[in-house]
Design a protein that fits this description.
This is Mab-21-like HhH/H2TH-like domain-containing protein. This protein is an alpha+beta fold. It is built from 8 helices and 11 strands. It has a 6-stranded mixed barrel with strand order 2-3-4-11-10-9. A two-stranded antiparallel sheet has the order 5-6.
């Protein structure tokens, strides 16, 4: 079991309200992209990713082989038989973990929480491979950021698999969300000083201005800010991110956010076909647009 930290503090952003999330990754289970990558004789529980065309940020995990000794976190009760193949169920995965000692836990999204909800624990699986949908990100044209060294590091780290399905599919327990949280941490750690300042300025703007407006409060989360900064950093010359140009960088990110909120979508940085904007829709985006435009024009 490997422990991985994420969240603002793990990224090096020690701002008011910053947090650190702890994730536990099962190292005994192996998730691969294609079946021929599995080494024989099989000594671990092996799954193959089956990506979903309609939901590019999600995948099914098809069981190929199970180790003789039952895995503590992926038991036989987690497996669902669809009559043709065996899949790992997100719901069963979470449910069988919540009764583990030292105390009783309760499902809280993709995490488990104690009764007081003061401690969130997240359990993930890991694949050493990025999914096929990430190939355009690896190959697409970019100016100078991120560097080839950072891209290679991200490729070598693969991805995490989160036990939660798409919000639009109620009751779906066979689709696992593909997470690039480790990749995103590498990307943030590769920021220069001005990029970090811009990120901090965006987060403070969200906390001190956007979220103090009752109509716009909690519509936007810091993940959108980070995603906007990733896209702007890739699209612009790195010389744009110099200290005298800090507010210009901030404006570029703000314009990106305004465009996304106006269209009610935000393209995932690695798999851009996946569009998301959480709580924001055509019924409430005008409130948020009003706040963002007032910041832009101030």
């Amino acid at each position: 079991m490997t422990q991985i930290s994420s969240g603002s503090l793990a990224e090096g952003m020690d701002l008011p309200g910053s947090n650190v999330d702890i994730m536990f990754v099962d190292d005994v289970v192996n998730v691969t992209r294609i079946e021929k990558n599995i080494k024989h004789p099989v000594q671990r529980t092996e799954f193959v990713m089956e990506t979903d065309v309609d939901h590019p940020l999600f995948t099914r995990l098809r069981l190929i082989a199970a180790e003789v000794r039952e895995n503590m976190f992926v038991s036989k009760e987690c497996i669902v038989n669809t009559q043709t193949v065996l899949y790992l169920s997100t719901t069963n995965f979470i449910n069988q973990l919540k009764h583990r000692p030292p105390q009783e836990y309760y499902p809280h999204g993709p995490c488990l929480s104690n009764k007081e909800q003061t401690c969130d624990i997240a359990f993930f699986l890991r694949s050493k491979y990025l999914p096929y949908q990430a190939k355009p990100w690896i190959l697409r044209y970019r100016r100078q950021w991120p560097s080839d060294v950072v891209i290679d590091r991200i490729i070598n780290n693969g991805c995490l698999l989160v036990p939660i399905g798409p919000e639009t599919l109620a009751g779906c327990n066979l689709l696992w969300r593909i997470s690039f949280s480790v990749a995103e941490k590498h990307l943030v750690h590769s920021f220069n000083f001005t990029q970090l300042l811009c990120y901090g300025l965006l987060k403070l703007t969200l906390k001190l201005i956007v979220n103090t407006n009752e109509d716009a409060k909690d519509l936007m989360c810091s993940y959108y800010l980070k995603t906007a900064l990733f896209w702007v950093s890739e699209e612009m010359d790195i010389d744009t991110f110099q200290l005298p140009k800090l507010f210009s960088c901030f404006s570029l990110c703000l314009n990106k956010l305004i465009s996304w909120v106006n269209n009610c979508y935000c393209p995932n940085y690695v798999i851009h076909e996946h569009m998301f904007l959480g709580k924001i829709n055509k019924y409430n985006n005008n409130s948020l647009l009003s706040v963002l435009n007032s910041i832009k024009n101030s």
